[in-house]
């Protein structure tokens, strides 16, 4: 497929859908129950209006920003998403190559289909990565992975995902459970050394499962504020980013753990965990209303449903410092490997620039609430 003929992220998804296996498509596309949160994630941006100003010099436009103090060229980044090689052999390494080209940040999933070492192997100087952790029942496995991160200086933070202590019910994925079994290995965790070989959690599932369910095997469901952050502090000195915050209460609690916690990601896991959980926009609005000091204490990133530059800009206006894309990067791989991912970054960068210039804004840190009318989505 000629990538230049694909003009937006929906075109990319459509092209990928024709090329990738039914199993890969179902795993990527799927979301919890009735896919309501997945749908809200995107439609909520469509209800927010922009307020363009005139007589502003918009000959130049700078999309660069910083994440946790690290310079990046784009205010959006690639979210951690498992199993990129289901879409294309370039896998997560291919995503890294495209990110290098555009100066974008990438968060590597613990359930990546390549090892973190392989993914960052050809990184450019200054390229920024995070590594995402699902704490394992066998804590030694997670500790071994955290140790490996110490040898990868390109990995600047640990992203701890908290919105899916158990997998959501994803029926598209489940319907494919008996189709094939040629999954790329879950490289990272399987290679991690384990001290407790006799643990019952180490056994593999007996009956066929969807890809999502099988990846959750061994993930801990017993994490708490009181126990998990102190445990992490013992095993990593990297800053922590908490992913999957869905209420202003938890955003506020997270901010009390600064400076160990340096950012939170408002996310409902792309609608893949609890269906009818709120889109990030609602949580952003709650934080603005009930505990705006959170924005001063830690960085607030969001993800879910981003398809257009206008979506990115609206999230930034609401106070997000970073905006993640999950499925678009996976479908981009399916459409054209690493060049497909580069095409997605190119499209979203151009759309973001166009939106900013038409709004009359030349730098991302000048975007604010005065550039939008969010009345239609303000709830209380
Ligand atoms: C994910 N996501 C995810 N999150 C995470 O913390 N660890 C993971 O391994 C995965 N795996 C994963 C696989 C697939 C196929 C998808 C679609 C998503 C969630 C991801 O980081 C992000 O929150 C959402 O994908 C954002 O929503 P969009 O951009 O897909 O709408």
From TrEMBL:
<keyword id="KW-0496">Mitochondrion</keyword>
<dbReference type="GO" id="GO:0004460">
    <property type="term" value="F:L-lactate dehydrogenase (cytochrome) activity"/>
</dbReference>
<protein>
    <recommendedName>
        <fullName>L-lactate dehydrogenase (cytochrome)</fullName>
        <ecNumber>1.1.2.3</ecNumber>
    </recommendedName>
</protein>
<dbReference type="GO" id="GO:0005758">
    <property type="term" value="C:mitochondrial intermembrane space"/>
</dbReference>
<keyword id="KW-0408">Iron</keyword>
<keyword id="KW-0479">Metal-binding</keyword>
<keyword id="KW-0349">Heme</keyword>
<comment type="subunit">
    <text>Homotetramer.</text>
</comment>
<keyword id="KW-0560">Oxidoreductase</keyword>
<feature type="domain" description="FMN hydroxy acid dehydrogenase">
    <location>
        <begin position="1"/>
        <end position="377"/>
    </location>
</feature>
<keyword id="KW-0288">FMN</keyword>
<comment type="similarity">
    <text>Belongs to the cytochrome b5 family.</text>
</comment>
<dbReference type="GO" id="GO:0046872">
    <property type="term" value="F:metal ion binding"/>
</dbReference>
<comment type="similarity">
    <text>In the C-terminal section; belongs to the FMN-dependent alpha-hydroxy acid dehydrogenase family.</text>
</comment>
<dbReference type="GO" id="GO:0020037">
    <property type="term" value="F:heme binding"/>
</dbReference>
<keyword id="KW-0285">Flavoprotein</keyword>
């Amino acid at each position: 497929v000629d990538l230049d003929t694909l003009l937006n992220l929906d075109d990319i998804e459509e092209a990928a859908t024709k090329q990738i296996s039914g199993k890969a498509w179902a795993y990527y596309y799927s979301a919890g129950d009735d896919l309501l949160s997945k749908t809200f994630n995107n439609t909520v941006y469509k209800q927010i209006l922009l307020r363009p100003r005139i007589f502003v010099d918009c000959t130049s436009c700078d999309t660069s920003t910083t994440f946790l103090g690290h310079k990046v060229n784009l205010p959006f980044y690639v979210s951690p998403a498992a199993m990129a090689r289901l879409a294309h052999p370039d896998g997560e390494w291919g995503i890294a190559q495209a990110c290098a080209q555009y100066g974008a940040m990438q968060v590597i999933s613990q359930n990546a289909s390549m090892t973190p070492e392989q993914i960052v192997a050809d990184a450019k100087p200054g390229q920024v990565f995070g590594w995402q952790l699902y704490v394992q029942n066998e804590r030694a496995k997670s500790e071994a992975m955290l140790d490996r991160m110490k040898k990868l200086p390109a990995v600047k933070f640990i992203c701890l995902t908290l919105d899916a202590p158990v997998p959501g019910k994803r029926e598209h994925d489940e319907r494919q459970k008996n189709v094939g079994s040629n999954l790329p290995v879950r490289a990272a965790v399987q290679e991690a050394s384990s001290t407790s070989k006799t643990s019952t959690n180490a056994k593999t599932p007996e009956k066929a499962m969807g890809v999502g369910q099988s990846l959750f095997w061994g993930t801990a469901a017993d994490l708490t504020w009181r126990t998990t952050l102190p445990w992490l502090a013992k095993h990593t000195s990297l800053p922590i980013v908490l992913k999957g915050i869905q209420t202003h209460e938890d955003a506020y609690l997270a901010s009390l753990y600064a400076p160990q916690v340096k950012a939170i990601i408002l996310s409902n896991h792309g609608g893949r965990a609890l269906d009818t959980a709120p889109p990030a926009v609602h949580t952003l609005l709650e934080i603005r209303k009930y505990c705006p000091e959170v924005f001063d204490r830690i960085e607030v990133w969001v993800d879910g449903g981003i398809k257009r530059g206008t979506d990115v800009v609206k999230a930034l206006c609401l106070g997000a410092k970073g905006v993640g894309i999950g499925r678009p990067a996976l479908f981009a791989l399916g459409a054209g490997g690493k060049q497909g991912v580069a095409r997605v970054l190119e499209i979203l960068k151009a759309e973001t620039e166009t939106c900013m210039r038409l709004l009359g804004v030349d730098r991302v840190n000048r975007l604010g609430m005065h550039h939008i009318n969010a009345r239609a989505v303000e709830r209380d």
